[in-house]
Every structure is written in structure tokens, then in C-alpha cells.
Amino acid sequence: MVMRKLMAVFVVLVFGLSLAGCATNGYYDPGRSAAAGALGGAATGAALGSIIGAATGSPATGAWVGAATGAVAGLVGGYLYAEHQNRQRANYAQAQQQYNYNPSQGYMVTVSEANVTPATVRPGQQANLFMSYTILAPQNTPTQVTLYREVRKDGALVGQPYQTTVTNYPGSYTDQVGFIVPNNATPGTYVVTNRVISSYGTGERVSYFTVM
After folding, report:
1. Strands of 108-117's sheet in order across
2. pLDDT tens digit string along 85-136?
3. How far is CA 62 from CA 16, 50, 104, in A?
4. 89 CB-near residues (< 8 Å, 6+ apart)
5. Where are the beta strands (DSSP E) in the chain?
6. For residue 187, how many C-alpha atoms fall within 13 Å in the half-sphere facing its CB?
7. Domains along the chain with CATH numbers
8. pLDDT tens track for 25-37
């Protein structure tokens, strides 16, 4: 009975920490993200550790074990993604011309390109997830967008989805984030969902890579 309670707490803890490493400034630092995940995990784990303490009869031990477990979960959750880069490739006027855009058309959000390099990787190696996207609006004012990635194999999610929030002026951008292929990844084709989400709309495109 006690072990079942402990396992339930651990599952809740890991799920709650899965987004602890997300960046909000457009650049993802793998070391900083892992540390943030560990710190956030430790704090949350200590709080949930009181439940462990109640189950084991030792509140102090429960808090200590919860903090340590939370830190480990935070590090694991922040490890799969690294080296996020978001750069402008065309300003507002250039993007308007490229897409023959008129402000009367309202808002436009599109992902024009998505690919993975290298296209074939081995377990433990890094695959670079690339996309090119454009946001156009009637006014040339900054807007907040969420950049989202998820990797699936045969429909099953591999690791946790990655997302970060950036604030960009309307225009065209390139975005790249590294995905560390798990050491136990099975061979086959992996599907990457690349998504740009804003209050004006959402753009999406899929890409693929192969694990040997």
C-alpha cells in the first residue's frame, strides 16, 4: 500500500516537472534549463514529499526524498532539447513583398519549411529540428508567439514536447532546436510536429528523421 502511494506521487511529480526547462527569451540554454528543471523539481518534490512522509511515518524523510527525486526528474525532463535559436530572416516590409501581403488581409501565421539535419542519426546523437515561419499583421508591432515541437515514433510521444515563448515583430524567422535522441531509441522513422502558436492563429508543418 505504501509503495503504491509512493509510485503515484512520483508519477505526478515527473508530469508536473516536464515543462520546467522551457525558455521564455527565445534562446534555450541546455545547462540553464536543466538547472531550472532541477531547482523547480526540488521545490515541488519537497512539497509533495509531505505525502511521502505521511505514507512512511517520517515527514522529514519524505521532504528530503521528494526534493532529491524532483531534482532528478527536472534534469531528465530538461535533457532532450538543447541549443534553441530563433533568428529573423526578413523584416516586415520584406515579408509583405514576399507573400504579396496587404494589411487589409488581417493576420497571417504560416510555417513555410520544416526539416531535420542530419536526416539519419543514431541513438545518443543530436538531430537539429529546423523550421521557417512567417507572421504578418496589419500593424508592425511586437507579438508573442509560442514555438512548439513534439517527436513521435509510431504515434507514441518520445520524451516531452518542447515549447518556448518569444516576442517578435511581424516578419519571417528561422527557428532551430536540437533534439538529443534517447540512447534507447528504437530504429525507424520519427515524426516531428513543428508548430507556431499566436493569438492571431496557428501554423504547422511536419518533418521526419530516421534512427538507425
Report:
1. 81-90, 171-180, 126-136, 108-117
2. 999 999 999 999 999 999 999 999 999 999 999 999 999 999 999 999 999 9
3. 18, 6, 60
4. 132, 171, 172, 173, 174
5. 81-90, 108-117, 120-121, 126-136, 143-153, 156-157, 162-168, 171-180, 188-198, 201-211
6. 1
7. 2-77 (no CATH), 82-211 (2.60.40.3880)
8. 333 344 444 443 4
